[in-house]
Structures are given as structure tokens and as C-alpha cells.
Amino acid sequence: MPTRIIIADDEAIQRMDLKDVLTKQGYLVIGEAGDGLSAVNLARELRPDLVIMDIRMPDMDGIAAAETLTQEKLAPVLLLTAFGDQPLVERAKEAGVVNYIVKPLRESEVAPAIEVALARYNEFRAMEDKARSLSETLETRKIVERAKGLLMEKQGLSEQEAFRKIQKASMNNRKSMREVAEAILLTNEM
Hints:
This is Response regulator receiver and ANTAR domain protein. Helices cover about 65% and strands about 15% of the residues. It has a five-stranded parallel β-sheet with strand order 2-1-3-4-5, sandwiched between helices. It contains seven helices and five strands. By secondary structure, the protein is of the alpha/beta class. The chain has two domains: about 5-105, 3-Layer(aba) Sandwich (Rossmann fold), CATH 3.40.50; about 135-190, Arc Repressor Mutant, subunit A (Orthogonal Bundle).
């Protein structure tokens, strides 16, 4: 399935040229916008794989739009602009832009820039998912440890016996160990 892209540029001719380049290279342009706000709304609606946009646009510039798209985890953003000055590059980095192409556009640079942008975005999302998973695992472990300690204290069980009791209740009731541990802690609070 081809990569689905939204392009945003306030100049219709630039959008047309970019769409032509993208289409020739096998990408699917699913939407076009002439300003940053429209690009954000279009991305919310269409959920593209990538948004390519100019920096200087009316209503909301490309960097502000990129920041919104990044915060809402809608799509990675590749900026396409005639301006390569350092303050803009810094703003783009802070906004979460995954790649940056300076105009005039050279067709040979488009596909590599897109592929790098998508790869970086996917790596970032994978790291986020892993961090979330590790955080949940750590939290589960803390809850199970507290419940285990409570069983050891209240019922005079060894650590291994308390763990086995939680584990057995988990299997018998088809609940996660975390759910069983939370129930033990909640029962104790009452």
C-alpha cells in the first residue's frame, strides 16, 4: 500500500509540482491545504502517513502546525521551505519535525527524505510504546509487591507462598496478577 501524504503550501503551483513529484515516485497524495490550520484539520480527518508542508503559510505557520500534529500524534511532518536559517531549524526541531528539505526541490531528494522521516517517526513511536510498557510493568510489579507484603504480614505467609497465592488467584479467576493484587490491597483498605 502506498504511503499516504498530505501536502500543505500556500502556493497552489508549489502544491501541484510537489503532488506531481510524489505521484511519479509512487506516493499517494490524499489531501492538500493552503494553510497550516487546514493541514492540521485535514490530518485529523484523514490520518495520513506523513504531512509535507511549507513553513511560511497563513493562519498557522508550518512549524506551529507541525507542533500540533506531533503533540496529537497524528502524523510525522517533513518541512519543505526556501528558508534554511538556524532559528527556523531550531524551532522545527523543538516542534518535533522529523525531516527538513530546503527548496528548490530536487526530485532525487524527495523519496530519501520521506523514507528517513517515516523511519525516524516509527522508531520514536516504538520507543514511546516500549517506555509505556516498561512503566506499566514496573507499576504492576510495585502493586504485586505491596499485596505480597500485605499477605505476608496479615496471614504469616512466606514471600514465595504469598506470591503463589496471588498467582493462583490470578489463574483461577482469569484476572491479571495486577488485578488480583489491587483487589487484595483494596480489601485491606476497607
